[in-house]
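F.,

This is the one I mentioned.
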C-alpha cells in the first residue's frame, strides 16, 4: 500500500457499520466495501498490476468497481475510469493512456475480469516518473477542441489531499459518471465524510425521483441541463423529495430561468453553484446568496485571478499535465480555464467558454444569454444556441428548440422574434430557428455546441 494514502483506509474503517452504497438492488456497508477492496488488491497482485501499471476499468457505482478503484490508488497504479458516456472510445483511451491492464465488468459472475492478450506499451515519461516515486495516479479524459480527447494525469496523493479534511457527508445521490471530475469529487467527498452513496440504478427522472424518496437522499450534484429535465418531467410533483437539502450545479452555465423555477419548486432546498475542471478538480465554492449564479472559490490551496476577462486558477491539486497535448499552464503554475467571467469583488459569474462566444459583426454574443431568454417562452422545453457562418457578419445566431407541444416552424419563428424584442440586442436574436425531436444534451448531461455551419 502506498504509505501516503494509508489515511484513506483508516478513514473508511471509522464508518464500518454505516451504509456506503444504497441502490434498488442492494445495500452495502463500508465494511463490505473494505472487504471488496481487499479482494480487489488480491486480484491486482495476481495480475501483476503495481506501481506504474496503467489500468483501465469499467467505472460504476458498484462495490466491485469502487473497490478496484480504491485498490488501484492504494497500490500505486494509474487508474483510468471508463464509462458508457466517456468522451473517448475504449480503444482510443487505451492507446492514449498506454494501458497495461483492461478490466471489464462481467455481469454473469458479478466480477471485474482482466482482458487477455493486451501488450504492454512503453510508459509515458510522466507515468514513469510517478512509478519511480511509488505514487499512484489518475487519468481523466476531457474533450479536446481538435476532436481528440486530452488525457489529464493527476498524482493520487495530491488529488486526494483535499479529502483528508472532509466534513461529515450527506446522503448523496450520484448520477454524474465516475470518469467525470464532478462525479469523482462527489464520490470521494461522500466516502471520506462517512456519507452514503445513493445510486438510482438508472438515469431517467422516474428512477431518480424514486431513489430520492425511498433512500431519503439529501444532496443532489447535477448539471443545469439535467435539472431542467427533472423540472419538465414532473418528478418533483410525483415523488416526495422533501429530504433534499442541497442541490449543486455546475459543468455548464446555469440559465437564470431554470434557477428561478428550481427555487419556486424547492423553496426549502439550498441551491449552490459549483465550479471545477478536469485539470484541477472541484474547489469549494460559496454562492453570493442562495440560488445565485455568482460564486467565489474559497477553498484552501486554490487561488484565482482574472486576465483579459478569463478566469485563471492555481491549485495544489492541479494535474501533472496532459499525456497527449500541450499543457494549459502559464507562469508559476496558473491554469487558463478558458471561461469568460464577470467579476464583482471576489465573486464571479461565468458567461461561457471563450471558445463558444459568437462574434456577430464584431459584437460578442454568449449562447447562454440567448438560451436564458428563449427558455422563458411558452411551450419551450429546452434550447441550444450556436453560431452559423455568415459572409457579411462572420456569424449569426442559430437556435434549436425542443417543444412541449407540436407547433409549426413558421409560428415558432414569429413568436421567437416577438419574444426577443427588448430582451436581446439585435445581433443576439436568432436568425435560424430549428425544432428538435431529440434531447439537446449528451450522455454526460451537458449541451453540445460543436455543430456549426
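My design for it:
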Amino acid at each position: 500500500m502506498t504509505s501516503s494514502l494509508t489515511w484513506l483506509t483508516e478513514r473508511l474503517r471509522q464508518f464500518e457499520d454505516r451504509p456506503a452504497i444504497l441502490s434498488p438492488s442492494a445495500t452495502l456497508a463500508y465494511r463490505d466495501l473494505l472487504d471488496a477492496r481487499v479482494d480487489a488488491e488480491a486480484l491486482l497482485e495476481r495480475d501483476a498490476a503495481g506501481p506504474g501499471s496503467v489500468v483501465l476499468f469499467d467505472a460504476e457505482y458498484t462495490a466491485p468497481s469502487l473497490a478496484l478503484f480504491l485498490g488501484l490508488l492504494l497500490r500505486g497504479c494509474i487508474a483510468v475510469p471508463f464509462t458508457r458516456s466517456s468522451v473517448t472510445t475504449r480503444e482510443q483511451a487505451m492507446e492514449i493512456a498506454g494501458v497495461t491492464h483492461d478490466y471489464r465488468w462481467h455481469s454473469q459472475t458479478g466480477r471485474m475480469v482482466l482482458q487477455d492478450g493486451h501488450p504492454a506499451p512503453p510508459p509515458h515519461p510522466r507515468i514513469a516518473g510517478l512509478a519511480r516515486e511509488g505514487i499512484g495516479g489518475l487519468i481523466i479524459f476531457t474533450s479536446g477542441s481538435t476532436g481528440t480527447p486530452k488525457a489529464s494525469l493527476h498524482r493520487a496523493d495530491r488529488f486526494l489531499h483535499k479529502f483528508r479534511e472532509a466534513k461529515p457527508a450527506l446522503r448523496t445521490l450520484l448520477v454524474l459518471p465516475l470518469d467525470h471530475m464532478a462525479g469523482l469529487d462527489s464520490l470521494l467527498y461522500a466516502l471520506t465524510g462517512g456519507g452514503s452513496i445513493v445510486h438510482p440504478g438508472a438515469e431517467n427522472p422516474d428512477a431518480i425521483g424514486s431513489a430520492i424518496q425511498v433512500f431519503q437522499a439529501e444532496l443532489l450534484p447535477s448539471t443545469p441541463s439535467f435539472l431542467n429535465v427533472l423540472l419538465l418531467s414532473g418528478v418533483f410533483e410525483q415523488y416526495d423529495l422533501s429530504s433534499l437539502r442541497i442541490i449543486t450545479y455546475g459543468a455548464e452555465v446555469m440559465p437564470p430561468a431554470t434557477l428561478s423555477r428550481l427555487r419556486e419548486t424547492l423553496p426549502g432546498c439550498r441551491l449552490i453553484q459549483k465550479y471545477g475542471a478536469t485539470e484541477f478538480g472541484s474547489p469549494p465554492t460559496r454562492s453570493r446568496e442562495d440560488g445565485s449564479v455568482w460564486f467565489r472559490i474559497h477553498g484552501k490551496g486554490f487561488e484565482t485571478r482574472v486576465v483579459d476577462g478569463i478566469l485563471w486558477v492555481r491549485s495544489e491539486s492541479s494535474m501533472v499535465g496532459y499525456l497527449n497535448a500541450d499543457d494549459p499552464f502559464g507562469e508559476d503554475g496558473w491554469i487558463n480555464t478558458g471561461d469568460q467571467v464577470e467579476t464583482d469583488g471576489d465573486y464571479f459569474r461565468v458567461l461561457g467558454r471563450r471558445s463558444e462566444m459568437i462574434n456577430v459583426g464584431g459584437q460578442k454574443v454568449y449562447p447562454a444569454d440567448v438560451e436564458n431568454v428563449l427558455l422563458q417562452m411558452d411551450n419551450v422545453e429546452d434550447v441550444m444556441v450556436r453560431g452559423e457562418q455568415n459572409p457579411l457578419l462572420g456569424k449569426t445566431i442559430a437556435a434549436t428548440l425542443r417543444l412541449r407541444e407540436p407547433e409549426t416552424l413558421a409560428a415558432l419563428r414569429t413568436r421567437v422574434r416577438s419574444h426577443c424584442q427588448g430582451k436581446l440586442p439585435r445581433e443576439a436574436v436568432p436568425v435560424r430557428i430549428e425544432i428538435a425531436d431529440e434531447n439537446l444534451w449528451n450522455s454526460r448531461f451537458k449541451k453540445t455546441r460543436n455543430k456549426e455551419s
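The mean pLDDT is 88.

Talk soon.
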